[in-house]
Amino acid sequence: MNSNGKNGSNGDYAAGGEPILCIRNLKKTYMQGKIPLHALNDVSFDVQKGELLSIVGPSGSGKSTLLSMIGLLDRPTDGSVFINGVEITRAKESEAPRIRREKIGFVFQHFNLLSTLTAMENVDIAMRFTGTSKNRRKERAFELLSMVGLGDRLKHKPSELSGGQQQRIAIARALANEPAIILADEPTGAVDTKTREVIVELLKSLSKKGQTIIVVTHDMDVARQTDRIISMRDGMIASDTGVKGNEEHGL
Amino acid sequence: MFDVIIRSLTQRKMRTGLTIFGIALGIFAVVVMGGMSEHLNMTYDKSIELLSSNIMVQPDGSSILDESKIRQIKRVPGVKDAYGVLYTALDPEKSGGAFGGPGDFVNGIHPEKQIKDLKLTSGRYLVPGDEYKAVIGSSIARKFNLRVGDELEIKSKRMKGSSSISHTRNVTVVGIQEYSGTMFDTSVSMPLEAAQKFYKMENTVSIIYAEPASGADSSLLAKRIDLNVEKVKSQSPEQLRKDIEAQLVFISLITISAAVLAAIIGGLSVMNTMLMSVSERTKEFGLLKALGAERKNILFMTMGEAALIGVIGGITGIAAGGVLADILNKSFESQGSALFAITPRLMAIGLLFAVSLGVICGTYPAYRATKMSPMEALRYE
Question: Would A177 be classed as within a structural domain?
């Protein structure tokens, strides 16, 4: 193990020019039998705090692979991912859970809520692993659910809620530990078009408040509403719009 | 995390219920079988204690001893005193009690040799000069509903040619012993001479007890008695204890192994349930990992579930076993003997066993759960 840099130390750099996420020469090769499959081939880009970035591309273009590398769900073959200047790709396996819960919030296509728990508990559970006190967790869960417009659905189980409501709970859960980045994998893939707009609006408003969000999507209608679109093809970046306009981001 | 564990168990009520039932059944078997051998152990332990340090001399080759042997034994160096007792079944039609106990028996004994460690709840001990008087055990008193002053019928039966002659006679109850958990609970103690006369067994006894002189080695003394007195077999208290323990170990082994088998089957059902529930929740564990759960969190959750199944199953099994033992004890009590002793030790063992079964059988499924990569777990449909 290389020991340069203090992995896992809290590398909260002062805001400014420093990007919140740096991806450098990221490569991931899967072996399909004896044939190497380059899912990611030398991908590099930076993301600033508060950006709402969408990654688009056909199936197999490497966008989900990229997302799982950033989320530390999988390890790259080569290259690095830095969050707040800390190289998370060098973190030890035992440190991965801590980085995931402190730096990353996940939103999935199929919501992935725990069906046995209420809306409140589904948000609460994300904070349990950080050792947050019970009262604080309750407070925060209520605050977040109210923010996503579900303050009156606290005791409902996922099965009693619509897809859009479930996804809003998932977003509240992703925000629970105040992560550096929210990674959303096809967040609108399983909801109808009307609900899709609600979700996108929610993500946009979070981004305005300074939350960095990366959305992987098939849906160009969703991508068009984001600040920046990265298109991927065959494991490489085909195009990058850069931040559209020159709107103000961050607080 | 405890509430999450409970939630996931109550969510699958049917399955959780069946698994708990499986464990409970196993522990029930452990408790009932264990209770039986505990009771046997206790009975013999206490009985041996009451006979204290005396050497037991039994006939070798025949069923009775001539009283002349008492004098011979007394002459053996190191013997302080010796006395005979006559044991006869209270009901000659049936001898021996349930599960190896001695059953109801008449204990013909010299009044001055009565075991005074057995306390009386009412009445008095036998005194020299008593004839057809008896001190009875608590179980006998309950069984025949006897109080001090009541009459108890004793019966003898002897073969004469091809026909048998029965005699009956009443003895007066003068004292009732308190419950001791020993074979003396089912005894009717009466003066030796009266017993010998009634049973037409004058000058004979069943067993002779030899008191060693202080400082004498009772094992050596037992051997010396065997050498000096013909046709007897002596057992020192240590020897007696060892012999009985050997038998009890055997009985315990049979009962405990049957019970353990039942419990292991229960344990396998926990394992099966946990494996099913873990593979069903692959996605859930993947999600928890993505949310930043560590291996130990997931391990705790799954092991906790298994342990909780064990605890609930164990408590249920112990309670059910306790209730059954109690019911059976009550119904056997009217016939004079308890069968089960559900001791705290046994309950602790039962619970410990249940929990460790749960935990051990939950280990592998839990390990499987922690091993899943969050990525694969999340893709799993």
Answer: yes
Q: Using 50, 70 and 90 to split pLDDT, how confident is the model at B240?
A: confident
Residue A73 lies in a domain: no
Q: What is the pLDDT of residue B79?
A: 87
| CB nearest to B287's CB, from A68, A112, A128 | A112
> Given B8, B293, B378, which is nearest A129 (Cβ)?
B293
For B290, which of A106, A121, A177 is closest by C-beta distance?
A106
Q: Note the helical H segments in chain A.
A: 63-70, 96-103, 119-128, 134-147, 163-175, 193-208, 220-223
Domain borders along chain B are: 2-45+244-379, 63-230
How far is A227 from A232, CA to CA, in rounded Å? Answer: 16
A window 51-80, beta carbon within 8 A of B: 68, 71, 73-74
Let me know if residue A247 belongs to a domain.
no
Q: How many domains does chain A have?
A: 1
- The tens digit of pLDDT for each residue in B44-91 reads 777 777 766 788 888 887 777 888 888 888 888 888 888 999 988 888
What tens digit of pLDDT does each residue of B343-353 get? 888 889 889 98
Look at residue A44 and tell me whether its pLDDT is greater than 90: yes
Helix (H) or strand (E) holding B243: helix B237-280
User: Sorting pLDDT into bands at 50, 70 and 90, what band is B190?
Assistant: very high
ipTM: 0.80
Whole-angstrom Cα distance, residue B157 to residue B355?
55
Q: Assign residue A123 the CATH number of its domain.
A: 3.40.50.300
- How many angstroms from the chain centroid is the CA of residue B20? 28
H-helix segments, B55-182: 68-75, 138-143
In a domain, A81, yes or no: no
What is the number of other CB atoms lying within 10 angstroms of the CB of residue B157?
Answer: 14
Q: Give the whole-angstrom CA distance, residue A214 versus residue A105.
A: 10
Could you give the 3-state DSSP secondary structure of residue B233? strand
**The residue to which tokens 């922690």 are assigned:** B370
Beta-carbon pairs below 8 A across chains A and B = 57
CB contact (8 A) between residue B287 and residue A71: no
- Strands in chain B per DSSP E: 55-59, 65-66, 79-89, 105-109, 120-123, 133-136, 151-160, 163-177, 187-191, 204-205, 207-212, 232-235
Where does residue B269 rank: exposed (0-12), middle (13-18), buried (19+ CB within 10 A)?
buried
Q: What is the extent of the structural domain holding A134?
A: 49-59+95-240
B210 HSE (CA, 13 A, CB side): 34
